[in-house]
Automatic annotation (TrEMBL):
<dbReference type="GO" id="GO:0016705">
    <property type="term" value="F:oxidoreductase activity, acting on paired donors, with incorporation or reduction of molecular oxygen"/>
</dbReference>
<keyword id="KW-0408">Iron</keyword>
<dbReference type="Pfam" id="PF00067">
    <property type="entry name" value="p450"/>
</dbReference>
<keyword id="KW-0479">Metal-binding</keyword>
<dbReference type="GO" id="GO:0004497">
    <property type="term" value="F:monooxygenase activity"/>
</dbReference>
<protein>
    <recommendedName>
        <fullName>Costunolide synthase</fullName>
    </recommendedName>
</protein>
<dbReference type="GO" id="GO:0020037">
    <property type="term" value="F:heme binding"/>
</dbReference>
<comment type="similarity">
    <text>Belongs to the cytochrome P450 family.</text>
</comment>
<dbReference type="InterPro" id="IPR036396">
    <property type="entry name" value="Cyt_P450_sf"/>
</dbReference>
<dbReference type="InterPro" id="IPR001128">
    <property type="entry name" value="Cyt_P450"/>
</dbReference>
<dbReference type="InterPro" id="IPR002401">
    <property type="entry name" value="Cyt_P450_E_grp-I"/>
</dbReference>
<dbReference type="GO" id="GO:0005506">
    <property type="term" value="F:iron ion binding"/>
</dbReference>
Length: 228
């Protein structure tokens, strides 16, 4: 009799406990007056709604839920802003509150453990890094010093496009090559052509793809082993 009672108790717990945990997960960290939010799934949240073209999916969701929308991307609550006015207010009035960058596995692996000025969290280190970039790379004097390089490479690109008439021109490829040539001349004192240039372009493209890749561990930490 006691064994049968124990079996019933375990069966009841196996049903009710997941429901309790699910209810707790759905209500944890919810602010009192959150922005509108689409229904979400346990564990995944709204990740499944991003699709292969997240910018289009977010635009579609914003048409239904408004310019300020709260998504739950795995364990990460994410505020999506689709209004220029709201974005301007956040970037200017509340910039300190929203200044930190989210943790990113690709950034950690590709840009010095996330220490790059574009990914480092707001603080003394970021302020010093920004100052160095502004003085050594983006100051008026530095930008002007590369003016001749920019003008020469731009003229060469325009000339190359003009010679291609009436053939179809891949402008994306042309602008990537232009940017690559300007950066290489400014940084290394020379530009690369042929196979070397193709390798630079390929590496730049691959770097961008990897940096923007989805890392499941960033959203569902206990599944981070999948990224390895």
């Amino acid at each position: 009799m006691s064994s049968l009672l124990l079996l019933y108790s375990l069966s009841f717990l196996s049903i009710i406990l997941p429901l309790i945990l699910l209810h707790k997960w759905l209500n944890m960290n919810n602010p009192k007056n959150p922005p509108p939010s689409p229904p979400r799934l346990p564990i995944l949240g709204n990740l499944h709604q991003l699709g292969k073209a997240p910018h289009r999916s977010l635009h579609s969701l914003s048409q239904k839920y408004g310019d300020l929308m709260l998504l739950q991307l795995g364990s990460k609550p994410t505020l999506v802003v689709s209004s220029a006015n709201a974005a301007r207010e956040i970037m200017k009035t509340y910039d300190i509150i929203f200044s930190n960058r989210p943790e990113s596995t690709p950034a950690r692996k590709l840009v010095y453990n996330g220490k790059d000025v574009a990914f480092a969290n707001y603080g003394e280190y970021w302020r010093q890094t920004k100052t160095i970039c502004m003085l050594q790379l983006l100051s008026t004097t530095k930008v002007r010093s590369f003016r001749a390089i920019r003008e020469e490479e731009t003229a060469l690109m325009v000339e190359k496009i003009a010679r291609s008439v009436p053939s179809v021109v891949n402008l994306t490829e042309a602008f990537v090559t232009l940017a690559n040539d300007v950066v290489c001349r400014a940084a290394f004192g020379r530009k690369y052509s042929g196979e070397e240039n193709s390798n630079f372009v390929m590496l730049t493209k691959r770097f961008g793809e990897l940096l923007g890749a989805l890392s499941i561990g960033d959203f569902v930490p206990w599944l981070g082993w999948i990224d390895r």
